[in-house]
Amino acid sequence: MAATVEELYRNYGILADEKEDLSKHKDAYQVILDGVKGGPKEKRLAAQFIPKFFSSFPELADAAINAQLDLCEDEDVSIRRQAIKELPRFASGENLPRVADILTQLLQTDDSAEFNQVNTALISIFKIDAKGTMGGLFSQILQGEDIVRERAIKFLCTKLKMMPDDTMTKEVEDYIFIETKKVLEDVTGEEFVLLMRILSGLKSMQTVSGRQQLVELVVEQAFLEQALNPADTDSVDRLLQCTRQALPLFSVSETTATKNVHSTRFVTYFCEFVLPNLSLLTSPVAELDIQLEVLKLLAEMSPYCGDMDKLEVNLNMLFEKLLEFMPLPPEDENGENAANEEPKLQFSYVECLLFSFHQLGKKLPDFLIDKISAEKLKDFKIRLQYFARGLQVYIRQLRVALQGKTGDALKTEENKIKVVALKITNNINVLIKDLFHNPPSYKSTVTLSWKPVQKTEAAAIGQKRQSGEDIGATATTKKLPTNLPRRDARQIYNPPSGKYSATIGNFSYEQRGGFRGGRGRGFGGRGNRSRGRIY
User: 251 has which bridge partners?
Assistant: First the structure.
């Protein structure tokens, strides 16, 4: 039987006035619990009164929590908000994980004010018992409905980094890592990105051993033990995504080999399975130059490559692929250059391949001397020389075009393209000079063109002639100043936009596949949709 407003106030008074033993007024508390069966006024009062005396009636704990939960699901949004606001008062002892579980389920609300209320409540109990709150969150991530799972992961991704250090203890971080590994057994691409973001933000993951653990997780998701099917967009998609997640984790130390997190397995995989199929790769995004994206990733990883079992074989694959993009000089019947047949110089591809070859070549410096035939070396130098001649002409044209331009003048779309083109050509020029040394040298250092640019560098480009070491490179051809595709003007790498443009930067896998386990939207449909995962 529902309690009236008057009955609620009367029994509230009984409990409030009791100074010694509240437990003897169990009937009064039961009347307050019955308030959830009344009208809106009774429910609002019950939402406030139930948590106030909750701790005094442990034998009615389940009934009280269930009564408050009923109010959290009420049709009246104001009643729901009041009930949610009071939920943290139930979060004590063994009840806390249950309250966290309830709040996590309530993240599915579409009411923004209510959603914010749930977030606030979760944060408050997180500060009471972080590990217990995590138990409730991960319970729903592993077993809850899709919308709940998605929002719980995003809650962790956005809120964990805001938690104070005394809350995020090593024990809590270890628990997060263990539970996240369980979740990674069955994730979508978008979830994978978010979960890696969560893990990489943990203090314990900032060490060399921590980053190595993260790389191992990415390796598992990347399926590096399997050959790549270049025609399968999901497989290509997954490889791009995993490699991009692994890149920030790699490191190299000149003095201590044990303090390195190497990219060797990824570089090896690219050389063995990706480069041979480069022209066959199917792009997951229509606007994406998939070959260029792959070559960029390889170039970025190559400085972090450690000892490689098949170094000569992989270096030879890089060398052969580089030859494909470095044409021989065109000749007419008399052996003279035929200008009307001049090949297109694909500077962007060459920058990536030349940089990767230069990095791996350091590990086998006699490759161009002893590992290839004299005829092939001669052919390579002819290609290098032809490419270098084209570079010099192009560099001069670009420097003249940018002469004297500073500040806003360099920010026009046309000049941005020219600045990037100058970086590309200067990079290639420096690397070619190294390879022309006898014996070939691998000492020069360049900054890849799509990597962050120093402001002083950009300001100086139009003022004076610069050496190749001062310039950093992206996609362009010999006709670049007039018809360069806009995406190639990127100075800092941004994942492709368009089809993937939702919540994960510019790279959303909302409609794409999952990784291990499939989750029904999987890359290749591995596994079936399941809510029976173990918690």
Answer: 261
C-alpha separations of 310 from 270, 313, 316 in Å: 13, 5, 10
Nearest to 451 by CA among 419, 494, 483: 494
Three-state DSSP state, 514: strand
Rounded to 5°, angle at Cα 79 from 78 and 85: 90
Residue 87 clears pLDDT 80, i.e. is over it: yes
**Tokens linked to 167:** 């809350």
pLDDT of residue 482: 33
507: phi > 0 → left, psi -120 to 50 → alpha, else beta; which? beta
Mean pLDDT of the region 258-275: 92
DSSP letters, 358-405, are: HHHHTTSTTIIIIIS-HHHHHHHHHHHHHHHHHHHHHHHHHHHHHTT-
Structure tokens at 276: 């041979």
Phi first, then psi: give them for residue 514, nearest 5 degrees: -100, 175
Q: At 509, list the tokens.
A: 């896998």
The pair phi, psi for residue 464, each rounded to 5°, is: -150, 165
The Cα–Cα gap between 313 and 318 comes to 9
The whole-angstrom separation of Cα 465 and Cα 468 is: 10
The DSSP secondary structure of 161-213, one letter per residue, reads: GGS-TTTS-HHHHHHHHHHHHHHTTS-BHHHHHHHHHHHHTSGGGSSHHHHHH
pTM: 0.78
Q: How many CB atoms lie within 10 A of CB 238?
A: 27
